[in-house]
Design brief:
Layout (H helix, E strand, L loop, with lengths): L3 E8 L4 E5 H12 L5 E6 L2 E6 L3 E8 L1 H21 L9 E4 L2 E4 L2 E4 L2 H24 L6
């Protein structure tokens, strides 16, 4: 799971926070990549810190559309790497000119399939950005 639509945090005192949008995504990433002692929620220009001991459970609701598109992006990149023999290189700029694929200034393929895959990747990335933009800033309750 790469993207979430919302997160629900239920506390010992039965208080419940439901957070959506970018703030839910931030919390997901923060909690997913570290052992946490507290959860930080930014709400209406205020910051709420909830200690781990006060949390009964946390539920993340996946953003199915965004995750589906991200999986398709990942699979398409794997095809590009397989067809070109290039290893994953996040820093490089890929581009297509007249069905020839370049990585930086280096020609890596003249196979039109690779060019089509890169064009598809651009379309998928735009779709993903549109979905994430639709979510807006999100809110808490």
């Amino acid at each position: 799971m790469h993207y979430v639509e919302s997160v629900s945090i239920v506390l010992l005192d039965d208080m419940d926070f439901k957070i959506t949008g970018k703030e839910a995504q931030r919390i997901y990433q923060e909690l997913n990549h570290q052992d946490f002692s507290s959860v930080r929620i930014e709400l209406n220009e205020q910051v709420i810190i909830i200690p781990r001991e006060s949390i009964v459970y946390i539920v993340f609701r996946p953003n199915r559309r965004a995750n589906r598109i991200q999986n398709e992006i990942d699979q398409t990149w794997e095809k590009v790497f397989r067809l070109t023999g290039v290893k994953d290189d996040d820093d490089a700029d890929w581009y297509v000119q007249e069905n020839i694929t370049y990585l930086g200034y280096r020609k890596v393929s003249d196979d039109p399939k690779v060019a089509d895959l890169l064009i598809r990747l651009e379309y998928l990335q735009e779709q993903l950005e549109s979905i994430l933009f639709e979510e807006g800033e999100g809110h808490s309750s």
